[in-house]
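Issue 218. Parser rejects a valid record. Input:
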Amino acid sequence: MPLATLRRAARETVSGLPREFWWLWTSTLVNRLGAFVATFMALYLTLDRGYSASYAGLVASLHGLGGVVSSIGAGVMTDRLGRRPTLLIAQSGTAASVALLGFMHHPVAIAGVAFLVGMASNASRPAVQAMMADIVRPEDRVRAFSLNYWAINLGFAVSSMGAGFIAAYSYLAGFLIEAGMTAVCAVVVFLKLPESRPSLNKNAEEATDDVGLGTVLRDRRFMSVVGLSFLVALIFQQGSIGLPVAMGNAGFTPADYGMAIAVNGVLIVALQIPVTRFIQHRDPKRLLVVSSLLAGYGFGLTAFAGSVGLIALTVCVWTLGEMINAPTQTGLVVRLSPTRGRGRYQGMYTLSWSAAALVAPLMSGFVIDRFGTAWLWGLCAVVGTVAAIGYGALMRHLPAEEPTSPLGRVRQEGQEVGPSVG
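Output the parser choked on:
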């Protein structure tokens, strides 16, 4: 593709989005540049502290349990208190708890603080996604979610490569750097992001109560999507849980794992923009079916990978599935959510990933300890197939997207737009 065409594609991808989006994007990027702990927690516990894979899985599950506990509460806070206060509380709590975790040595203390980190770090997700839905036009949402996902993985690619070498020097330094970067995110939110919640008057706030958790739970189509999201999340969790433990057991170093998993972030940084242009107006059912199969069989191929290079090739396969799945599924959740209940719906969607973060470590630790890593990768292929069949059966006759809220239209018409965040 000619360079001029690539430049035009990139310009069209980033143009026309509101200024608030770019500050939120910047906050996401800074946060992920310092995201060391979740990536290297399993290696920290098994190699540095000498604990078993089962204990590492237990700690990661408690981290996931914290996310399960906070998902629903954060969704309600997002609708009631607002997006901005929820983000400030979540990011400040994450910075404090991550710093504390670095100084914990007793196994019970490590597990307890990991639970707190899971609660705090997961609480920001419903607020971020609801704020994006508030401020971005429906026709631009897949593009906006893709760009945000691109920022997540740009930061992840950099932090993964750097964290392996930081871990070789000091795991504590990784904890403290992540805490500091998260604190910077809280400052960005405080200084640059206004509240975007559509409910701005008393009557609107009372109307928000019409969409309660019972409403979400009775929405059968949405809850089916949440269940399928849980299955897909179980697979993707293995990139940070099953894969590092399996590579450690096979004699690979933390730096080897860091370089292999960095391929995930590098590919997303390089390809997310063209992939976004390809998927933006395509049938979400087909996209979700294909992404589920790529995820399941991408991890399944890891059973046949005996070198860092081959492992990196399997990462390429499931990364393509991830690039397709993430913006498509997030856009679908917004499409199925009523405007006044976005926080609660996003909280329930976040719960699917939090529940997967709770179950996946226990599953992978048990399977690896009892049966070996080959069984884990085979199970991933089976789960991916089940998810693909489920998406194919459920994704029929989707409702039309709701129009942009009056608040969103005012913000987009009255403020400068574009990729600049200055």
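Fixed in the parser; the record now loads. Confidence is low (pLDDT under 50) at residues 200-209, 404-422.
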